[in-house]
């Protein structure tokens, strides 16, 4: 036996003797090859067996010592092996490509014969082949950008019809992984996936990434797509369907506890999809047929469309970043859990029998219905068009204080979970007779608007909130805008408003919570707070402590006030809103004008540092 080491630390051809120590090309059944020279530079190097070349080794090890950390670097800074010709492990050897699992092996129309354990991320370009009498074991990841065929004696990641280890990815249109074949007569029939039983943190993954990508199995006669046999994804196993690819099978498909069906797909059509407790289906796709959901289906981004029927006792939910979920028929034991920036579309509201747990900021679209109001009544959202009830929806969770604003959007009734806005007790409002505390104002009394006109008060809403008992106290804790925070006497004294109450600056209305900076605009934790609001004949700007701020805009949220004339909402949420054409000014929460106001606040805070707060 003879040992050969790569000496240059730079990229080069395997079949150049000067690159080796000793200066001889390793090409025999006794050659023990080690490629571990420290790279020259920070981008690693590649040793290439060129197209048409054929080399044999007894053993081959990449990066065992010098480059052990380099394989983990970004960018990769270690030795890589590229096989564009043929690499053969001598008959009778175990065929191990040794070294760390993060080694890089690239094949470009290459062939590796008698490979056993391959410690590497393998990227196949062109038409590549693993064959020979050993059983192959890919310890890391096989990624096919072209076609990679594994036609070996066995595939070590399989036990019977179960794939229990490895990551196999067909990436890009036309990318293909063929498992089995005629050279060694290996037939493959994967019916189930699961993570490796002896590696608690290990996982198994199949990825179909792009339309036309395929993972095929040799059935003894022909290659068939994985869809024809796979029926079960179990603990620590993942099936990815990405890049808009469709997935069509006549098989029922089960997603077990601890398993994942990960989708950025087109259409998913199965003989029935079952998600067990602890199982997860997430992403974007259109899934047809019957879904038995005892686990979780989670929508993200552009949306998850469930065009068939969803039964079971599980959960439909959304990615934390938000998303859209569209459903057709949902059974009575299914819960939809929303997070505050989600949209739920009910294609057929009459066949939605499930329960919704929504948050402030969520929208529920009822396709094909016309509605003007939605009122919560003993856990049921009663949706009406005028005086006619058009739909009832079960709600779960705490909704005390939340309001439900209704608008029509593209032929659908859009129910948006929203909240009222208001002034804290003691806020002085300008009237023709001078400033009057908001709690002392009466209906019919005149106030002065920011345009110097007068307008009669139509209604004064009032509410005391026990913040210590509120389920979401930050949604009701007042925002304090310090005296002169926006300039001299703007406001004249500290102004306390609810988080979503909008003040007028830079020509737009801006919610107070968007201006909190910890300096001259802060949110204060209090045990109780008394809130009031003033309604004028139309939405307008009042002068509150000398600062222009909005009057009440009726979005159907009078239930947040004690004297709203409807059932009192126990724990109002005052942190969010809806906006419509009746508003007196545009509402902005981000953008240049909001940034300009925040800059003014910082400037005033700096210039007034050390001064005491106005009384």
Explained architecture:
With 615 residues, the protein is mostly beta strands. The chain contains 1 helix and 58 strands. It has a 30-stranded mixed sheet that branches. Strands 6, 9, 12, 13, 15, 17, 21, 24 and 25 form a 9-stranded mixed sheet that branches.
Total DSSP helices: 1
Structural class designation: mainly beta
Task: Provide the gyration radius in Å.
Answer: 33 Å
**Beta-strand proportion:** over 45%
Please state the average pLDDT score: 91
Largest sheet: 30 strands, mixed
| Strand runs, count | 58
Enumerate the spans where pLDDT stays under 50 for 5 or more consecutive residues.
565-580, 611-615
Binned, the helix content reads under 10%
Shape from CA axes? elongated
Distance between the termini: 92 Å
Task: Describe how the helices and strands are arranged.
Elements lengths: L1 E5 L5 E2 L6 E2 L9 E5 L9 E5 L4 E4 L1 E4 L16 E5 L2 E4 L7 E2 L5 E5 L2 E3 L3 E2 L2 E5 L1 E12 L2 E4 L2 E9 L2 E2 L2 E2 L2 E6 L4 E4 L12 E2 L10 E6 L4 E5 L4 E3 L6 E2 L3 E6 L4 E2 L4 E3 L4 E10 L3 E3 L4 E8 L2 E4 L2 E16 L3 E16 L4 E3 L5 E4 L8 E3 L5 E5 L5 E5 L2 E6 L2 E8 L7 E7 L2 E7 L4 E2 L3 E4 L2 E4 L8 E3 L5 E3 L2 E8 L12 E3 L13 E3 L4 E4 L2 E4 L9 E3 L4 E8 L5 E4 L2 E4 L41 H16 L8
Parallel strand pairs: 1-4, 2-5, 4-7, 5-8, 6-9, 7-10, 8-11, 9-12, 11-14, 12-15, 13-15, 14-16, 15-17, 16-20, 17-21, 19-22, 20-23, 21-24, 22-26, 23-27, 26-29, 27-30, 28-30, 29-31, 30-32, 31-33, 32-34, 33-34, 34-35, 35-36, 35-37, 36-38, 37-39, 38-42
Antiparallel strand pairs: 1-3, 18-19, 24-25, 39-44, 40-41, 41-42, 43-44, 45-56, 46-47, 48-49, 50-56, 51-52, 51-55, 53-54, 57-58
